[in-house]
Amino acid sequence: MTEADRVNFERLDIISVDLAMVQRFLSAYLDRALYNSQGCPDGVLAEALTVAIIVTYARPFTRSKNRFGKWEDLDLSFLTAPLSDGQRGLHQRTMAERDKAFAHSDAGPQNIKVIDTPDGRLTVSNVVRVLLEKWEAEELMENVRKMKAVLEPRLEELRVAINSDGGC
Fold it and tell me: Which of 62, 99, 117, 155 has a CA that sits 20 to 30 A from residue 126's CA?
C-alpha cells in the first residue's frame, strides 16, 4: 500500500461521509415535503436544507487542497459514470448552482434586486430563494444511491489493502 493509496482512501472515505449526509438531508427534505414550503413557517428550514444539500452534494466534486496544501488530482468520474443523461444533467446543474448561488455569490448586477421583507424593511439581495422541487430531490437521492453503489466497493478494496499492510 502506497502513501498515495492511503491518501486516496482518506479522500474516498470523506466522500462516503458526504454522500451519507446528503442522503439524510434529502430524506428529511422529502419526508417533511419541504419542496412545498415557500412562504410557510418551514420555508427557512427548507432553504437551509437546500443549501446543505447542494453544498454537501457538490463538495466531493469541488477541487480542493489536500492536507499538505497541494491541489488534489483525484479522478471521480467513476462516481458519475453510472448516471443516466438526465441524472448527469441534474448533477451538472447542481454543481453550477453551488458555484453561482451558494458558494461564491457570482450573481452579476442584473441579478440583484431590492426586496420587501415581511417586517417592512427593504433589503438588497442577489440570492433568489431557491427550493429543490420534489422531482429534483428524488433524482438527487437516486444520484447519491448510484454513487454510493460504485464508491463502497472501491473503498472496501482500499480498506482491505490498508488492513493487510498492518495500517488502520
Answer: 62
